[in-house]
Amino acid sequence: MSEQNTKDLAVKDLLTEALSKKIEQVIAQLTEAQATYQGNLILANSLGAEDMVLTDILARFLPEIPQFVLDTGRLPEETLTLLANMTGRYPQTMVHVYYPESTAVEAYVRDHGINAFYQSQSLRKACCAVRKLEPLRRALSDRKAWITGLRREQSVTRDAVAFSEWDESNGLQKLNPLADWTDKEVWAYIHHFNVPYNALHDQHYPSIGCAPCTRAISVGEDLRAGRWWWENPESRECGLHAASSISLRQDA
Ligand code: SF4
């Protein structure tokens, strides 16, 4: 049996023996959430593999739940191509695209330079604050809960992610329905349902953010090792997912 056939068989096995159940759990959690939050629920789509899984599930089972994308102005071309293709594949999905305030970006570049994020962690976080956090605040401003594709397996900064937790920094509930999914399960879903994904994933980019802050990883490296690779692993978050959340439900 060829290596590809073995891989295909492994993907099929995952769908039949374990993944189907997890998919059902995701649908059940999000159906319940939609009933609870009634129109005040939204998916944060970073256009990574996990968020494309959630996009597909929502489009098929809960198309009334909208989503938002943060276009920082520094995204890779491959990510923007996926965004363009996604709206054609899922015409039933409402996608809101948020951009940074132009005057804040202009001030940051004027004061620090176009690539100042390489100089220090504080300048990197300041850039993320302008290009990501402020637009996130606007995206969540009229919501009671948001959905993310966070998984525990992704990095040391995410190993305690709960299925549902209070997001203290943004003041609303955060749902992470893929919290216990493995990387293999994410890709089994994508291949089985032919979900569109970022072309960079095929070039050893498991986690993709802004172009200047993302690189390919090597075999054996942490899945998020290519994000802000010049910093310590413990600091490699942009602030969208602060570790201050209080868990309200574990492994539901
Ligand atoms: S990931 Fe890099 S370019 Fe993007 S907002 Fe953060 S520091 Fe700026």
Order of H and E elements? HEHEHEHHEEEHE
How many individual helices?
6
CATH overall fold name: Rossmann fold
- Strand order within the widest beta sheet: 3-2-1-4-6-5-7
β-strand percent reads: 5-15%
Structure description:
This protein is of the alpha/beta class and 252 residues long. It has a single domain, classed as Rossmann fold, CATH 3.40.50.620. The chain contains six helices and seven strands; from the N terminus they run H-E-H-E-H-E-H-H-E-E-E-H-E. It has a seven-stranded mixed sheet. Strand 2, helix 3 and strand 3 form a beta-alpha-beta unit. It is globular and about 50 Å long. 36% of the residues are buried. Mean pLDDT is 88; it is low at 1-7 and 244-252. Bound molecules: iron/sulfur cluster.
What's this model, at a glance?
Helices cover 40% and strands 11% of the residues. The chain is α/β, with parallel strands linked by helices and 252 residues long. Helix 2 links the parallel strand 1 and strand 2 (67-70).
Which key phrases capture this entry?
252 residues; seven-stranded mixed β-sheet; binds iron/sulfur cluster; alpha/beta; 40% helix; Rossmann fold; disordered N terminus; single chain; disordered C terminus; globular
Walk me through the topology.
Blueprint: H1 3-37, E1 41-44, H2 49-61, E2 67-70, H3 77-89, E3 95-98, H4 102-112, H5 121-140, E4 145-147, E5 164-167, E6 172-175, H6 183-192, E7 246-249
Helix pairs in contact: 1-6, 2-6, 4-5
The structure holds iron/sulfur cluster (SF4).
